Amino acid sequence: MSYLHYLSSKFNLSAKFILISKVFLQILLLLVFLAIGGMIKHVLNIPISAAVIGLMILLLSLLSGILKLDWIKTGADFILAELVLFFIPCFIGLIKYKDLFLTEGWQLLVAVFIGTVCVMVCTAYSVHFGFKLENKIKQRLSQHHQEKHKCL
Predict the structure, then answer these.
(1) DSSP string spanning 30-78?
(2) What are phi and psi of 117, to 5 degrees?
(3) How far apart are CA 141 and CA 33, in angstroms?
(4) What is the pLDDT, as a whole number, of residue 114?
(5) From residue 57, how far is each of 15, 46, 47, 76 by CA, in Å?
(6) Tens digits of residue pLDDT in 56-80
(7) Residue 58 · residue 73 · CB < 8 Å
């Protein structure tokens, strides 16, 4: 039984309050990783975004087992569900600089198109090489197991 469920049974809290509390605490935990990334960026003076550094630390924490996925999943799902709200300032900027986009917008569209194609190609090759690496690892493991059984 989780701590929030224990509190709800002890103090007769509603399920909605528990969910809101869980989301809030999980988003707070994600913001801690952002803050850690910001501190590392400031101390090491590296040209990588604090958010990217924080996400790398978060990924390493998840892969190493220091952090459990359940500890952040509900908060991360909430952020992803509300992702559209984070793009509103971008659209406001488009409206503000409408004349610029009408005169030179084709350059932006070309850049976005080329960038999208590059990302798609890199993603495809990454997935392809990942599958090839996975197959090589499986083959080596099966060969290792076969050799082990031959020796016995």
Answers:
(1) HHHHHHHHHHHHHHHT-SS-HHHHHHHHHHHHHHHTSS-GGGTHHHHHH
(2) -60, -45
(3) 36
(4) 95
(5) 32, 15, 16, 15
(6) 999 999 999 899 989 999 999 998 8
(7) no
